[in-house]
Structure to design on (340 residues):
């Protein structure tokens, strides 16, 4: 199945287009004034993918190191779109003041967790223009398990409304043409499962654009089985001191929710919510943020069982991704045959 890529994630122009309330000024971040002139900042690293492969767990582990400034929110998607007219120093001030407000001399590196960049070579090029020292971290996973987790996440975010994964897979071509899209889907490309799951293809392209020496690949199973060892190797790769961390939290599997109507307000709000936030004063924003957190907690549920793929779906996915798994094995010089 051929997939034409238009925009994988919502664009981030002069002021980023919000995807969640947590990313709206007053809820998540607020840009601060910065003096003109050259910008002095440490080298950066970017966790560019892949979604549902452990990027949140690794991001949280690195963000807790006192020598690292990690972006808030985790996924700014700042470099997805070109910013004509903004010189390098202005762009650096804009990005750092917006997403790294506490960046200081104690930090040996800054980090960013925008998983969209793996799928957009031009974003990688913009990152390198922004910071020629930048390095890239990619997490990969058994594509079948990635598909299972990713589909559940799309349902949780209300970008997907087809509970049956087999049917959602069948709808990819139709949805790429703009048909059969869920009412609350923010970006049709989010539902192109086949394109997203070809990690070998995307990793090969990342190596071509950024250079193999700038990239570190983490296999999901390795971080699950020995997080301390993976953490130490990652710190060495980005040039940051070890803080002695030995305890690592693994993120929970995506849960379900009680009420779809309430879920939209905490994960995928309608436009009028953003308009309300835009005109609210700081005190009201604080109250709205607290209300959102309480609604999100109450509305969470573990009622939806882990999706079980039928034997037919498993065979189809294993067959579809087999060549890409071989490509990934070659790129990593590692036998991943158990993923086929």
């Amino acid at each position: 199945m051929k997939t034409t890529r238009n925009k994988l994630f919502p664009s981030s122009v002069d002021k980023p287009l919000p995807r969640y309330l947590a990313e709206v000024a007053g809820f998540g971040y607020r840009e601060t004034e910065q003096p003109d002139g050259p910008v002095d900042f440490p080298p950066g690293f970017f966790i560019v993918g892949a979604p549902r492969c452990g990027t949140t767990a690794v991001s949280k582990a690195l963000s807790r190191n006192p020598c690292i400034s990690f972006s808030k929110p985790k996924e700014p998607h700042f470099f997805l779109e070109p910013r004509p007219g903004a010189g390098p120093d202005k762009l650096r001030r804009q990005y750092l003041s917006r997403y790294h407000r506490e960046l200081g001399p104690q930090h040996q590196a800054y980090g960013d967790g925008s998983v969209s960049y793996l799928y957009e070579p031009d974003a990688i090029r913009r990152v390198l223009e922004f910071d020629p020292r930048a390095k890239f971290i990619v997490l990969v996973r058994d594509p079948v398990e990635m598909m299972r987790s990713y589909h559940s996440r799309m349902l949780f975010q209300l970008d997907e409304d087809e509970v049956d994964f087999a049917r959602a897979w069948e709808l990819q071509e139709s949805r790429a043409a703009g048909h059969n899209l869920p009412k609350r889907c923010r970006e049709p490309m989010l539902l192109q499962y086949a394109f997203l799951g070809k990690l070998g293809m995307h990793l090969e392209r990342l190596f071509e654009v950024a250079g193999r020496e700038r990239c570190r690949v983490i296999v999901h199973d390795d971080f699950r089985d020995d997080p301390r060892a993976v953490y130490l190797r990652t710190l060495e790769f980005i040039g940051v001191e070890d803080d002695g961390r030995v305890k690592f939290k693994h993120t929970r599997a995506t849960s379900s929710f009680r009420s779809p109507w309430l879920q939209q307000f905490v994960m995928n709000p309608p436009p009028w919510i953003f308009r309300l936030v835009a005109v609210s004063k700081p005190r009201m924003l604080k109250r709205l943020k607290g209300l959102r957190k309480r609604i999100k907690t109450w509305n969470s549920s573990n009622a939806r069982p882990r999706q079980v793929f039928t034997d037919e779906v498993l065979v189809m996915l294993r067959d579809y991704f087999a060549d890409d798994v071989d490509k990934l094995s070659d790129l990593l010089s590692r036998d991943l045959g158990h993923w086929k």
In short: The radius of gyration is 20 Å. The first helix runs from residue 55 to 63.
